[in-house]
Specification:
The complex is a heterodimer of chains A (138) and B (92).
Chain A (H helix, E strand, L loop, with lengths): L1 E3 L1 H14 L5 E9 L2 E10 L10 E4 L1 H14 L2 E10 L7 H5 L6 E8 L2 E10 L6 E4 L1 E2 L1
Parallel strand pairs in A: 1-3, 1-9, 5-6
Antiparallel strand pairs in A: 2-3, 2-5, 6-7, 7-8
Chain B lengths: L1 E4 L13 E4 L4 H11 L4 H4 L10 E5 L2 E2 L15 E6 L1 E4 L2
Parallel strand pairs in B: 1-5
Antiparallel strand pairs in B: 1-2, 3-4, 3-5
Classes of the chains: A alpha/beta (138), B alpha+beta (92).
Amino acid sequence: MIRVHPEPWATMVAHAEATFPNECCGAMLGTADGDDKTVTFALPLENAYTGGQEDRYEIRPEDLLRVEREARQRGLDVIGIFHSHPDCDAYFSKTDLENSCPWYSFIVLSIQKGKFHHANSWLPNAEQTKAEQEPLEY
Amino acid sequence: MAKILIPTPLRQYAEKNNSVDVSGATVGEALANLTTQFPDLRKNLFTDEGKLRSFVNVYVNDEDIRYLQKDATAVADGDTISIVPSIAGGLC
């Protein structure tokens, strides 16, 4: 189960809507007690994909290094990554899976016609062959 | 000794340490010593063939080892080694 507090959730939705029709991305910080995760801070990141960003996103490793440092400074943990699917459902695509990391929760926000529509959280495996849906509360 | 920062989700495999001091003259030796000390970390960082998993990047201080000497990158006392994943995705 992953719970996102109202303030980070608002940050995530605002970032996803502002970057529409492109995909957005960012990191979620908070606390984890086993599989029970709470997101208390969201950090929007730049989509570093150099081609069309309406259907792709990429996070620079150096940005994640900065996120990890910020989490340590705040006394929080890096819980997961969020990104948006413009005018598309919040599934975990083949591209998402093949470029994922099993260490984190991945929240996908569906943005339809520029407005938030729905979201799902996913847990990819280490082989990048499948992702299990994780209960999400926001 | 260099310090390896352990990403949050991997601390459960490293006795909950957020960093571990390791010996080793190169990144490869330091990571080998880390996974000898905490064997459960190995499958998270390396494939069965012993290669770093495709989504794992390693930094020495602020430098990505892919642009240095990779596993053979030298590590000095007081260096910080960070483990950072690659993440991307898309609609299709």
